[in-house]
């Protein structure tokens, strides 16, 4: 994604109230760890969507300049270790000997270097996050459904450790579950002819600025386009607070437009009613309890079976857990 010659973005932020889609996420809690086969429901798109490139649950916190000091970062990492140990035990990941401290100026936390269920709990001067690098989607599924029930307690302990060490209360100001994918080897399903990413992105944009700045779909102008990004967000309210759903598609020009970078975000923050201007404060405790809704109703039912299937209709593709091949 090295080309940054330009970007096109679009955002829809008008509040929209929509009914719940797909299956009830309570089946995750009620039935324990939902099987991968049940999650995919044998939908054809999962035959191609075999890898996830990255996951991050990122929360903004009040400024923490102390983490820039190596001694404070070391104390913070040590304080988080026991919470991580308890979380992987409850998730039945075990292998506690794979836990390692992250300690350095500006960056603290604990990483779990397991061969299948690796992830890290990180703290910077402004964020608290759980991050996992790319893997087969099925491995991610069992990591997510195993760890996420423990995650509210893990993050609560992290906030308690921050409060104690910094001697002031810490809470999450906003947070988002972010699921990222890289699609490559794009081709027309019928002819198997190779496609460039801008051919897919034309479903999301109405035109590219010409030399004169006028929007056009002229083939020569489109072929000369650099980076094309589309970032669409919606406020959605179902049974609880308003949540911001984000659909991001990035089409870099490097490697002759060979791939698409997609990120789907399920976020929560202080909501301002556009009519009354009344604000509803973000409750991170409630939000962290919605890990199943983020994964089932949003990622699977809306982002994959809705947005992705529509975007890639008539297109074959592959995915990668690492960098673009």
Overview of this protein structure:
By secondary structure, this protein is of the alpha+beta class. The chain contains ten helices and 15 strands. It is globular. The chain has two domains: 184 residues, no CATH class; 109 residues, no CATH class. The longest helix has 21 residues. The chain starts with 15 loop residues before the first strand and ends in a 5-residue tail after the last strand.
**What is the SS-derived class?**
alpha+beta
The main pleated sheet reads as: 11 strands, mixed
Number of domains: 2
Which whole number gives the mean pLDDT?
88
**Sequence stretches where pLDDT stays below 50 over 5 or more residues:** 1-31
Number of helices: 10
Q: Give the C-alpha Rg.
A: 21 Å
